[in-house]
Amino acid sequence: MKDHASLAKQFIKNEARTDWHDETLWFVRQKRDKAAHGLPEWEQLRTWASEIKDHTLSHLDDYLLEFEKNATANGIVVHWASDAAAHNKIIHDIIKQEGITRLVKSKSMLTEECHLNEYLQQQGIEVVDTDLGERIVQFRKEPPSHIVLPAIHLKKQDVSDTFHEHLQTEKGNNDPQYLTHAARLHLREKFIESSVAITGVNFAVAETGGFVVCTNEGNADMGAHAARVHIACMGFEKIIPKAKHLGVFLRLLARSATGQPVTTYSSHFNKPRAGQALHVVIVDNGRSRQLGREDFRNSLKCIRCAACFNTCPVYRRSGGYSYHTAVAGPIGSILNPNLDIKAYSDLPFASTLCGSCSNVCPVKIDIHQQLWKWRQVVTEEANVPVSKKIGMRLMAWVLDCNVNYKVAGKVGRWMMRNLPFLVKNKLNPWYHQREMPEAPKQSFKEWYIKNKKA
Amino acid sequence: MKVGLFIPCYIDQFYPQVGIATLQLLEKLGCTVHFPMQQTCCGQPMANSGFAKYTKGCDKNFVNNFSDYEYIVGPSGSCVLHVKEHLHSEDNPQLAKHIRESVYELTEFLTDVLKVSSLDASFPYKVGMHNSCHGQRGLHVSSMSETVTPAFSKPGQLLQMVKGLQLSYPQRVDECCGFGGTFCVFEEAVSVKMGKDRIKEHAANQVDYITGGDVSCLMHLEGILKRQGSKSKTIHIAEILNSQV
Amino acid sequence: MSGREAILNTIKANKPVATALPFIDITAAITYDDVLQQYKTVLQNIGGSCQELNNEAELQEALQSITASATKVVNVLSATPETIATADAVALEATDIAIMRGVVAVAENAAIWVPEEQMLNRLLPFICQQLVLVINENDIVPTMHHAYEKIDVMGTGFGAFIAGPSKTADIEQSLVIGAHGPVGLQVLIVKK
Questions:
Q1: Which of C138, A448, C11, A125 is nearest to B20 (CA)?
Q2: Comparing B33-42, B73-82, B160-169, which segment has the lowest mean pLDDT?
Q3: Containing H/E element for C101?
């Protein structure tokens, strides 16, 4: 499988497109900055959110049980899924009873993580993704490249071509208003005829047994309130203790994600409507293992805002597909190695450890510190090439002993000055697009001995 | 004031002028500067590559060289940050702790400890500030664009004291240059693209020099500038602050 | 062992040492000299529009004017509850304008809390082409913290904070007002 470095290299080959992708996401970061700077209490909000999540993780089983008790008392059916397969099967079992072959689904990164659409398709059930960005990539048979802005990697002309093919819109008409309206009409039918709707969960509230779904488009609500069966899927870390905590999280979420003060709809589902079946599927899928990792459990505080994606200079210049996983970006790089350290051993290295991600994270996850820590785990547990291990040992041998260090330094510099072809060649990745630094005749130490040492 | 001078390995080998400028500057400002001769490397290159377990030798050597100082000063945000966060010694945990608490990056030492309020320096050029990530987000030598906190900059404050210097900032005031340690070769495409984008923003300000607190960033930007045939150069802040009237 | 047991047991074994909940100090939140003005400014920014009305009579007049050229209007304020509550998607699909009351409005983000008791039908505020929300100026609060103090979240089976008309920027970050929900939101503010 290709790794981040080679996929990123492919992405960057189209420099103009890379610039466009980078600028588009930087603009979202700027909108976030403007929203954050508009609230003098912003940093206090982050601290509260972080502390609420820390507390919740330390009482996680209690809060999940409280949620289950209250939800059940309100008529919600609560299911527990250990892994993706269990999640998919639970959903299929619920649907089987309805005898339908098509359903609508609003945005849920959890269902992406579990590959629900493929699974249901194999069972003969068509899933219509109703979030506009998700529908676009679904038509194109692509995964979303960003957890909040699924089609951020596509230009309007790409969408125009896709809609022309699938919705028979005018060829060449790439006006976003026109295209959005076409999607509105197309999906409206689906909402009205769907008896099953699947949504995600932004926040599940232990105190009330209810959950909140945040959207701008209204698609989650269109599906859920028309359907006879509403299934809401959540990773278990979405739980928060009290309804009043929503005040903290809803003030942070949209500002962090897109720079809006709040999403158009923050829908609080407490009870099924009369005649409706409302299900919640609580999913583990590796989260309980992450909870046990002292260095990495903090990553479970994530509210999936993607602020870290938008600020990451590497993500902006490599695109979501370079991470070859459902949840990309900086948060993905600290979540995915927990699922499969070998498959995702490259991700913690897809970073310069600049630390910008940790600064924008609304729940104060120390993302860049965790990236560093995952690197230590990867070299222990994943398949690091022997050459790299040897190279590092050699480096350590040279660098930790003054004698070796001085000799290597002097020899290295001599070679660079007198045999430049040794480094100025195709085998040296530094040299592809950069000149080498000059190799001075005298190191600082040598100068010091000559000029300063008494 | 007695200071132990910490000169990172790549400065020692490739940019000795930065070490010289640092030493001269500290002496000008009244410090007695000692340079422990046996120092080598802080271990950051291995640690950041996931091989912190191989840095015991570097840690040991660092502790041996620097245990005797109230102040240890180095012209590198990333190396100083690494020592602050990761220096450990099984044999001498107390010494290691003392060192972690006594190590300073050059600009923060000047503003926070020496409390420099004026400099006898002159550098009549247009200079673009590069906010190196580890010094900024790790050591907090300046405020960060992401957080809602009062603005300040220790390096900026010092550069304002230099006669004739015209300081500018790039549009994206603190975006990473893309060096990132071994990232610069293992993710060469992204690394260089990030560097090129930084340079483009400084070029828009028509700078003569790009400066910052980390030679690693500057070495990476300089490599690209030279390949582009640019007239702009890079220079470490120590050299500017040490420049003569 | 069931999935439920396995999950809860692992969580119990792996969870960190207990930390305390923070005290949420509402007085630390932003305040506005003129909450109404802030509300109106943000509403406009997010694609909504509003009118200020002095009394019930003016409200009715405004509603008349708004609905004058509409074909199908569902007015929760004056309709028979049962007909709306039991209507299905097909029946509601052609709704041009839906009118209902909001209970609390939030100045910082122009959101309005609408519990299902005010919707009568959960689908109604989403499926209509234009949504009209009636609020009292008295019920405008500065922030979400204040809103949650005022509303009884559990007092309803479903409620939504509605901030502006539906929208999307999923096509090359171009903002389009009107995605799947209503294409327009008008807020009628009845003054003190």
A1: A448
A2: B33-42
A3: strand C97-101
Kindly state the tokens that stand for A102: 């098509």
pLDDT tens profile C67-104:
999 999 999 999 878 889 989 999 999 999 999 999 99
Q: Residue B188 is encoded by which pair of tokens?
A: 């060469």
Entry pTM: 0.96
Q: How far A180 CA lies from chain C's nearest CA (Å)? A: 7
Alpha-carbon gap, residue B215 to A78, rounded angstroms: 57
Pairing of β A210-215 and β A265-269: antiparallel
Identify the DSSP state of B90: S
Q: What is the per-residue pLDDT for A1? A: 58
- Residue C28 sits at the chain A interface (C-beta within 8 Å): yes
Percentage of chain C with pLDDT > 70? 100
Contact assessment for residue C188 and residue C51, using Cβ atoms and an 8 Å cutoff: yes
The packing angle between helices A329-339 and A367-381, to 10°, is: 30
In the sheet where C140-141 sits, what is the strand order? A239-240, A203-205, A210-215, A265-269, C158-162, C111-115, C104-106, C140-141
Q: What is the per-residue pLDDT across C5-23, written as a single tens digit (0 to 9) for each?
A: 999 999 999 999 999 999 9
| Secondary structure (3-state) at A51 | helix
DSSP codes, A65-120:
HHHHHHHHHTTEEEEEESSHHHHHHHHHHHHHHHT-SEEEE---HHHHHTTHHHHH
Spatial CA neighbour of A309 closest among A351, A372, A262? A351
Task: Tally C-beta pairs within 8 A across A and C.
Answer: 255
Q: Does A450 touch chain B (CB under 8 A)?
A: no
Chains that touch C (3 or more CB pairs under 8 A): A
User: With contact defined as beta carbons under 8 Å apart, do C90 and A226 qualify?
Assistant: no
**Taking all residues of chain B, what is their mean pLDDT, rounded to a whole number?**
96
User: B51 to each of A187, A391, B54, C5, how far by Cα in Å?
Assistant: 52, 11, 6, 39
Interface residue of B33, B42, B188 to substitute, partner A, most A CBs within 10 Å: B188
Q: Do A33 and B176 touch (CB under 8 A)?
A: no
Question: Least CB-CB distance to C171: which of A176, A269, A289?
Answer: A176
Query: Is chain B adjacent to chain C, meaning 3+ CB pairs within 8 angstroms?
Result: no
* Yes or no, beta carbons of B192 and A433 under 8 Å apart: yes
> How far apart are the C-alpha atoms of A269 and A76, rounded to whole Å?
10
Q: What is the largest CA-CA distance in chain B?
A: 52
State the residue for tokens 């008008």: C186
Higher pLDDT, A438 or C137: C137
* Residue A445 distance to chain C (closest CA, Å): 49
Scanning chain B, the segments in alpha helix (DSSP H) are: 9-14, 16-28, 44-46, 56-66, 77-86, 93-102, 106-108, 133, 154-159, 183-186, 188-204, 215-228, 237-241
Q: CB–CB of B46 and A438 under 8 A?
A: no
Coil, strand or helix: which one is B236?
strand
Residue A409, pLDDT score: 87
| Beta partners for residue B33, in sequence order | B3
3 state SS of A334: helix
Distances (CA, A) of B199 to A227, A313, B58, B151, C73: 55, 15, 34, 24, 59
Residues A103 and A197: their CA atoms lie apart, in Å, by 6
Distance CA C97, CA C131 (A): 6
pLDDT tens-digit series, residues A61-119: 999 999 999 999 999 999 999 999 999 999 999 999 888 889 999 999 999 999 999 99
Residues of chain A falling short of pLDDT 70:
1, 453-454
User: pLDDT of A336-377, one tens digit each?
Assistant: 999 999 999 999 999 999 999 999 999 999 999 999 999 999
Residue type, C143: T
Q: What is the mean pLDDT of chain C?
A: 96
Q: Cβ–Cβ of B16/A438 closer than 8 Å?
A: no
